[in-house]
Every structure is written in C-alpha cells, then in structure tokens.
Amino acid sequence: MTPEQVLAEPARVLTQQQRESYFEGGYVSVESLIPQELIDRLNEVTAVFVERSRSVTRSGDDYDVADGHGPDSPRIRRLKMPDRLHDTYWEFATGLIADVAADLVGPDVVFHHSKLNFKWDAGSDDVKWHQDIQFYPHTNYSPLTIGTYLADTGMDDGPLMVIPGSHDGPLFDQYDEEGNWIGCLSAEDSATVDVGRVEYLTGPAGSITAHNCRTVHGSPPTSRPSGRPLLLNAYASADAFPYTAHPQPTRNTGKVIRGQPARWAHHDPRPCLIPPDWSGGYESIFAAQDEEG
Q1: Can you tell me the distance from the alpha carbon of 202 to that of 199, in angstroms, rounded to the nearest whole number?
Q2: Cα–Cα–Cα angle for 49, 184, 135, nearest 5°?
Q3: Confidence check: pLDDT of 242 > 90
C-alpha cells in the first residue's frame, strides 16, 4: 500500500497526526502507550531469562552475550526471537502494538521478527548508524520496527536515535571495503549524517517508538548499569514479500496477524542492497558491527 492508501484507512491506536508524522519523518514515538500491568508482566518474564543466562558461557540460539558476561554478572546484549521463547512475548506482539503496526503499514499486517536488546554500561554498547531493510529486503519499504521501553529510558540509558527524513534519502552500503558485512554505515557515509538533526527518542516505561525500515538510526552508549531493555517487534504490510532468506525466522515469521493475506505484491521501484546469504544462520547486529568472527 502507498502512504496515501494507509492514511485513508481509519486509525486504530495512533492519532492521524501521529500517522502523518511517521510518513513525513520516518518515525514516531508515543509516551506511556502500553499499560503498566503489561509492562510488569513483560519484565517478570524477562527477569527469568536474564537469570537463566547466568549458566550461558557464549552466544547461541537464545542469547547474544556481551564481554564480561558470567554467572555473577549476566550481561545479555540480546534475547533472540523472544516470540518463540514465551507466550507472553508473542501475545504482546499480536496485541496492541499490532494495531499500531496496522496504523502505519495498512490493515493487512505480517509479523516479521522480534528481539529484546539490552545495554549494560559497557562503554562500547552503542549501536552504529544503520538502516534495517538491507538486512531483509522486501518488494516494498513498508517494513517497520516498533520498540517498547520496558524501563524508563533517558539520555543516560542509550535511547534510540533517528535521523528525521532519512527514509526518503539513499540506502547505504553496509559492507566494508573488503566486502565483509558490517551492518552499519561506513565511516565516510556516517560523516555525511547531519548530527544536528538527530532526534533522541526517550520516554518512560511503556513508551513506544516506530521507525521505517529505511530510516537511519542507532543508539548512543549507556552511562548507567541499568540493563536498559528494549523489546523490538518488526512487521510489514502483507503485500511486502521478502526476496532473500530471513536472518532469524521463527514459527511465527510470515504470519498474518491483522487482516488478510495479499493476493498481489506491491513493488517499490527503488532498489535495495542484498545482504549475505542468511540461510546458514545469523548472529546479531552487535556481532556484525563489532566484526566478531
């Protein structure tokens, strides 16, 4: 669907002004949208997985761990694909924020993936400037990611940062000069980012962010040992079809969670960079940006 077609559909959760702002800037944030009771449930489940990670010695199918992770100091960079690990995460992914997704991609919504990222005051836990769609090209650019802050997130907690309007700009090459996938902009391309226009999306627990798959974004390092959990769920319009292997598919990948399956694919004429072949597995953006293995 085109933005005009999406905006012609009745809003479910967001205001029309918020929807228009998303299409104009490539992102939108809403403070305290998720009820505290639901945030508490998510945090209870998350605490269980953090506790279980104490016995994990290296990154694997469920966890991506940071340097210094151990039994006495669990430092998880990512809980991978939480939608498959606990019903609470999947119920959340198909609940209120699925309606938010419908407000931004149209009434027919497909689930793409989920992840739960943390920051642990490691000093180097920034996420470099990047765009998402190069990780998983689709026939159009409707895919988006909705983040939910499970804890209060201010400037000291490494909030999401975006470049407004960058979704209408170029797609950047996220390989290095040797042809290795690094999952971020090169130093040269990063130097072209107008940092004077950066928006930092802070907010109390229960706030959400939504950014388009073309939007240039990242996050600064945290300066507090808070763990800053950010639950991320990605969706697409049902008429957006992937044409490369999914980086980390689950049993829920590709499920239509609002509306109906598409009978016609919508094709955006703008080209997209092709990532490596993910069919053999994928570690995480942290591993790629840190050039681990």
Answers
A1: 9
A2: 70
A3: yes
